[in-house]
Amino acid sequence: ALRMQYNPKCHEPKWFLVGEDGIERPMRLDEIQEYIDQENKRLERDPMRSFDPKEINIRMEYKHCPNMILIDTPGLIAAPRIPKGRPGGGAA
Question: pTM of whole model > 0.85?
Answer without folding.
Answer: no
